[in-house]
Each structure stands twice: as C-alpha cells, then as structure tokens.
Amino acid sequence: MSDPRTTPSIFTRGAVDLGALRPANKPAPAGPAGPAASAGPIPSPGGAPPSVIDVTEANFQTTVLELSMTTPVILDFWAEWCEPCKQLSPLLEKLAAEGAGSWVLGKVDVDTNPRLAQALRVQGIPMVIAVVGGQLVEGFTGVLPEAQIRQYIDAVLKAGGVEVTAPEDPRLDAADDALMTGDLDAAEAAYRKILAESPQDHAAESGLAQVELYRRVAGVDAEKALAKAAADPDDLAAQQLAADIEVLSGQAPEAYERLVAAVKRSSGEERDAVRKHLLSLFNVAGPDDPAVAGARRALARALF
User: Which of 33, 52, 140, 188 matches a 20 to 30 Å C-alpha distance to 205?
Assistant: First the structure.
C-alpha cells in the first residue's frame, strides 16, 4: 500500500480547514450535561484508554484533533439505516480492539452530526478517513476485505510514526506449509485466494512465483541443464532453466545476470519471453531484495 500522506486523495481538491471544526470557547455549564461530561473519551474499565469513541461536533477537538497529536484516529462515518455500515463498523471495532491503543476508532453518526460530515466532505457512507497529527489522511468509501483494511491501518500507523510489526497470517502459513510439503496445487490455490483478497500481498506473490519455479524444475537434472546452458549461450530456453536452478541453489544474482545477458542477445518475442521469465524470478525474491533492485536497473539498460 502506498503512503497515505503522498497518495492523491479526495482532500487534495481543496484544503479542509480542521481548525474551523474547533468549537468556540464557551463557559461550561454546570452539571453532568455540560461539555465536561462529553469533552473526550470515557476511560475503559481498569483505566485503559478506549479503543472506540463516539465523535460529535461538540467533542471533535478533544476526541480527534488533540488526540491525533499523539495517537492516530481513524474515523468511521455511519448511519443506522446504512446496511453496508453494519458490515464495516463491527470489523473496524474488532481491529481497534486488536490495536491495543496504537490507534483509536472514532465513530461519527452522520445523521446526528451533519455539519461535521459536510465539513469533512463525506459524500457516501460507510466512509473511513484518518487524522494523524491534526492532518487528514486519505481513506476509502464502502466495505473492503479485512486484509485491505488491515493494510490501510498499517499505513496510517506508519504515517503517525508508529512502528508496525506485520502479524502472522494464517492464510500464508497454510499456503507455505503446502508449498514446503510439495503440494503445489494446494499452495497455488491458497496463494491465488490471498491475492484475490489482497492484490498487493507481496508474500503471496512470492509464494505463487515459487510454485511456478518448482514446477519448471521438476524432474530436471541440474548438472546437465547447467552444462547445456554453458555450451550454448544462444539457447534461450536453456538459459532460463539454468537461471531457475541457480535461484533455487541460492545464486539469484548469477541467475539475474545470466538472463540480462540473454535479453541483450535476443530480440522480438524471444526477448520478451526472457524478460518475463526474469520478472517472475524477481517475484520469487520480493520487491525489497537489493539484488533485485540492481538487476532491474541492468534489465532497463539492456532493454533501452
């Protein structure tokens, strides 16, 4: 997921003055009905900070603006009549509880807080946005899969300077187990299911690329394949198979170099086939591998 601080958002169409949402200073009326009773979140039992708060026009400054200076606040705009809201809100509440205070969910009823919804340019519900350090952060409208919502929350936390540790994903664990036991069909199905739910899941992309790699080398005599590639540098199929073997042998940089050289020696459809094969090997390693970064630059020079 891209950094929400740099991704174009609905708020870039015009500045949203959060300062205008601060209520004017007024004397607090006596009694429990005054602002003192609703100025901020009510502590949870045992003194722990709440994970979910009700946000209104009256308490926006304390429950959102001031709180966001130390803790990211994610706002859920909802209404009682909104059926999709009944799917999204419980999921957000569950994730907020799991967050254990790293962020707070602010629930905004648009029917009872129309001016607040208008000020924040809510055009449809359910709608989710965040406030970090007093600044709005891009959000989303509608119901998303849980995996994508988790990615959004992680991005908000990173924007707020919170160190995020990726939780274990039981879906990936099951897919990896199938891969390690050689059940490639089950592994492929599991990785594809994850990618259908979370298209940017790099771990699942890598797992699927590994499945394809294992299938290509199944039953291959590694020594003979490498010897054939060495004997005929212009045999592109041999070079691709040799690169597969090198990746599985822990020699990924050599595999990348081999295929970049093959790209330089080829043209047309053959060159494109080698390029795609090399990209599939990049996926095995993942986008953060420094060897992949260097090989991508070498590939770009070879192509252009």
Answer: 140
